Amino acid sequence: MFIDGRTIPDGAIIETDLAIIGAGAAGISIARALADTGIDIALIESGGFEFDPATQDLAEGASTGVPYPLDTSRLRYFGGSTNHWGGWCRPLNAPDFEKRDWVPWSGWPISRADLDPFYVRAAVVCELGASSFDDPAPWSSRSGNRPLPLEGGEVETRYFLFSPPTRFGTRYRKDIETAPHVRTYLHSNVIDIATDDQAAEVQSLAIRTLDGKGYEIRPKRCVLATGGIENARLLLASNQTIPAGLGNGHGVVGRFFMEHIHVPGQIAFVALSDSQMFSPYYQDHERIGTGWVRGVFMMSDDYLRRKKRLGSNMAIYSDHAPTIDPAKAAQDPGLAVEPAVAGMIRQTTSNAPAGATPMIYGISCATEQAPDPASRITLSRETDALGMPRAELHWTMSALDRRSLAGNIRAVARAFGLWGEGRVRIVFDQGEDWADEEVGWGNHHMGTTRMSDDPRFGVVDADCRVHGVSNLYVAGSSVFTTGGAVNPTLTRVALALRLADHLKAGN
Ligand SMILES: Cc1cc2nc3c(=O)[nH]c(=O)nc-3n(C[C@H](O)[C@H](O)[C@H](O)COP(=O)(O)OP(=O)(O)OC[C@H]3O[C@@H](n4cnc5c(N)ncnc54)[C@H](O)[C@@H]3O)c2cc1C
Prior knowledge:
Elements: E1 2-4, E2 13-21, H1 25-33, E3 41-44, H2 53-56, E4 62-65, E5 88-89, H3 112-125, H4 137-140, E6 155-162, H5 168-171, H6 173-178, E7 182-186, E8 189-195, E9 202-208, E10 214-224, H7 230-237, E11 261-262, E12 268-272, H8 280-283, E13 286-288, E14 291-299, H9 301-307, E15 312-317, H10 326-331, H11 339-351, E16 359-367, E17 376-383, E18 389-395, H12 399-419, E19 422-426, E20 472-474, H13 489-504
Helix pairs in contact: 1-13, 3-13
The structure holds flavin-adenine dinucleotide.
């Protein structure tokens, strides 16, 4: 059942077994997973079914440090940011969960094996059509499809699967509407999580609507699923009992904000003497069997360990950066690229075997960030239309982040060079002097309520329960201890389904 929060009488008090704050990928996944358990659920969503500028304005905030757009990197209505996500899905690799001695603050309290069964279920929720990622056999069975035989052991082809992309708000609206024990409160903003005197148990949620009304939901248990920035903001703003904010006894809430750093445009070009060598799944996502698949270049686990680097994933961009036909580029000054690339085009053309079509492609790159406590969400002095302090993000980029990105693209160039059939020209030459204003991002908000067994270093425990608060849980990529080098939503949904199982078991 959907209820417009603006129709609820001012001052009303509603009781429920479980409140889920936020109806995005995480919140909707949990509500669906618990829909047939008999648990009475209140799903509380800030927006309605459509984009609304006044509601979206609640996501506006300030950015210091590396510039970052707080409002355009998420959406505030039913379905959340999946209303405009791209659908790239891949699990984190097993070493991403481990303590890496060269990555400060690394090491999740859970392993990839703990999440494996939930990744399989998350793949169904995200409608991937398959759930096996690293076995190339299914993707290579089609004639002509095979991973590039890159050499040197530093770079490997890994695979993404694609969601249609599933718009959670549209795709699962009926499920949520008809679930007998789920009531969804729209146009309802939680502005405070109130607790007992010790801040050890959530007692009620203060809710405001943009037309100035207020009501209260009193849950037995509560899941915070408002996205990687808002989860921290709401905990920090829930400061009536403890001035530093709820769950913030050790000052960790909001810290360790991570993104996937991007180089805007191409980081490099790759020239192949024969375009046929590139399986179609490198150039765009390709329908293979029941799934859409895309091959990307990622660093091998051994390379990352040896070189003490963070991971990257690099995709061939023939859709964003039209591929250049070297034969035409050589004759047409309109297609001229910078001299170094033009030289590569000439060389590739002259080396091409008879009958082959040489081709040049752009390479994009997304790189993991090392957790940094100084990279953080705090509360701004400015308030929003509901009187809640806006979020302020101070995003940082470390020397290890920069070194990793610059080193990883060189590794890709080496791998092509050793193979001998292709050449890579690196066009990103800022290296460690990369100006903050030129850094790109992936709209992935991670780490601000990170998971750790030790409350001094994390906000939630391995069950996603807030340390010290018996009935409060967090869902979403704010719980990521480290972010890996792949898009986060599949892992976020897997963690949400794992949390749903935990709640179902009565914990
Ligand atoms: C342009 C773009 C492209 C992307 N592409 C990809 C991709 O290809 N692959 C990938 O893995 N990820 C991608 N992402 C990221 C992905 O969309 C998000 O990571 C994911 O949707 C986050 O899920 P969530 O449930 O944690 O948060 P959200 O989807 O942001 O949902 C949070 C919900 O909580 C509500 N809310 C917030 N505050 C309150 C409050 N105080 N009270 C009540 N409700 C509240 C919001 O209205 C929202 O509906 C992309 C993001 C963007 C912006």
